[in-house]
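Backbone-to-sequence.
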C-alpha cells in the first residue's frame, strides 16, 4: 500500500512596501480631488449666499424708499399751488428756517458721491383739505381760528399744523387743545400753547417772532390756510459708509429728531434724478435732471414741473473675492459715455444722461459683486394739483 502524498502549501506573502506606497499615492490623489471639489463648491456657495443677501438688502431698501415716495406732497397743496415756499419752526429753543419746502428734495452728492433724498407729507387723513384762517393770526394770542365746516374731527390734539399763505413761508405749530365757539359753530380755535406735550410751539412771547411780518390774514382773495400734517412725516434717506467702504442706507426722521435708523445693509451708493415736464400744467416727463445747477434749489415756478423721481441703488456683496470679478457689470457703457468706475444706474440717452456710480474710492472695489436696483416713482400728489 503506497503512502499518501500531501501537496505542500504554497508560501503566503502580504503586501509589499511598494503596494502600500502605491495605495497611499492613489488615496492622496483622491483626497486632493475631493478637497478641491469641496473648496470649489464651497466658494460658489459663499458667492451665491452673499449675492442673495445683497439682492435682499437692495430690494428692501428700495421698497422702503418707494413706499415713502408715493405719499410725497400729501397735505402740501391748496388751490393748485403749494401752500408755502418754505417754513419756520421752533426747535432747540430758537427759530429754525427751512428754506426749501418740496414734496421731494434731492441733495446731490459732490463729485459723484451718494445722493440723499428728503420726502415730506402729511400723515393725517384730512391733510388734503386745508382749512382757511377765519381771523387774522399775528401771534398776539396762541390760537389759530379756522373754519369748522367739516367738524372738529379734522384736527386732534398733538397734530402738527402748517399755517401758510401762497408766496410766503409757512409756520409749523402743534395743536395743544381745541376750542369751539357755541355762538359761531362754523369757527374752531386751534390752541398752540407751548408745553412738554407740544414741543413744536414756542413760548407765548416768542410766537410773533416765528410768524412772517404781518402774520396771516383772512383775506379771501389770497387766503391763509392751515394744513393738518398729522405727525408730519419728513424723512431723509442717505448712505452711510465706514472706513472700509462698507455701507448701509439709513432713514432719518427730521420731524422727531430721532437718530437715523438702518433700513438696508450692503447698500453703498444711491443716485437720484428729477423727472421734469415742460410746464406745471403738463404731466409728461420730458427729461431727467440731476439736482445740480438750477435744480439744486429749484425756484417755486419750477417745483411744480417735478413730476417723478428716479432712484438707483447699488448693493454690494460682503465677500471680498481673491481675484478681480470679471463682469460686464463693473463697467458702464451708456449712450452718454463710458464709466469705468462702476456699474450703470440705467440705460440713458444723450439728452438725459444717467448719473455716475463712482466706486473707485475703495481700492478693492473690483473684488466685489454688485447689483443695481432702479425704479421710477410718479409723484401723484403733485400731478393731481396741477
Amino acid at each position: 500500500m503506497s503512502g499518501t502524498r500531501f501537496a505542500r502549501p504554497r508560501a503566503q506573502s502580504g503586501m509589499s512596501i511598494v503596494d502600500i506606497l502605491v495605495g497611499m499615492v492613489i488615496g492622496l490623489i483622491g483626497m486632493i480631488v475631493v478637497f478641491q471639489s469641496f473648496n470649489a463648491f464651497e466658494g460658489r456657495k459663499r458667492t451665491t449666499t452673499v449675492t442673495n443677501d445683497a439682492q435682499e438688502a437692495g430690494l428692501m431698501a428700495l421698497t422702503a424708499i418707494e413706499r415713502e415716495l408715493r405719499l410725497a406732497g400729501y397735505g402740501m397743496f391748496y388751490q393748485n399751488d403749494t401752500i408755502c415756499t418754505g417754513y419756520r419752526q421752533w426747535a432747540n429753543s430758537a427759530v429754525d428756517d427751512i428754506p426749501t419746502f418740496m414734496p421731494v428734495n434731492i441733495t446731490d452728492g459732490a463729485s459723484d458721491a451718494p445722493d440723499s433724498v428728503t420726502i415730506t407729507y402729511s400723515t393725517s387723513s384730512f391733510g388734503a383739505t386745508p382749512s382757511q384762517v377765519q381771523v387774522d393770526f399775528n401771534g398776539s394770542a396762541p390760537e389759530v381760528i379756522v373754519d369748522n365746516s367739516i367738524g372738529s374731527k379734522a384736527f386732534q390734539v398733538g397734530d402738527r399744523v402748517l399755517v401758510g399763505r401762497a408766496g410766503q413761508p409757512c409756520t409749523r405749530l402743534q395743536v395743544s387743545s381745541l376750542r369751539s365757539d357755541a355762538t359761531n359753530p362754523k369757527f374752531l380755535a386751534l390752541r398752540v400753547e407751548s408745553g412738554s406735550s407740544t414741543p413744536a410751539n414756542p413760548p407765548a412771547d416768542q410766537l410773533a417772532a416765528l410768524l412772517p411780518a404781518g402774520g396771516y390774514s383772512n383775506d379771501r382773495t389770497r387766503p391763509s390756510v392751515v394744513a393738518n400734517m398729522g405727525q408730519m412725516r419728513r424723512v431723509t434717506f442717505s448712505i452711510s459708509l465706514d472706513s472700509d467702504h462698507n455701507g448701509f442706507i439709513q432713514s432719518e426722521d427730521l420731524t422727531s429728531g430721532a437718530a437715523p435708523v438702518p433700513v438696508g445693509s450692503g447698500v453703498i451708493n444711491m443716485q437720484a434724478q428729477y423727472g421734469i415736464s415742460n410746464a406745471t400744467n403738463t404731466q409728461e416727463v420730458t427729461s431727467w435732471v440731476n439736482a445740480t445747477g438750477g435744480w439744486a434749489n429749484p425756484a417755486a415756478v419750477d417745483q411744480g414741473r417735478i413730476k417723478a423721481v428716479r432712484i438707483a441703488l447699488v448693493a454690494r456683496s460682503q465677500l471680498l473675492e481673491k481675484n478681480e470679478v470679471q463682469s460686464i457689470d463693473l463697467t458702464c457703457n451708456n449712450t452718454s459715455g463710458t464709466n469705468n468706475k462702476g456699474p450703470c444706474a440705467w440705460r440713458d440717452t444723450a439728452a438725459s444722461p444717467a448719473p455716475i456710480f463712482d466706486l473707485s474710492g475703495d481700492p478693492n472695489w473690483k473684488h466685489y459683486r454688485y447689483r443695481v436696483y432702479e425704479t421710477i416713482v410718479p409723484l401723484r400728489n403733485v400731478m393731481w394739483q396741477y
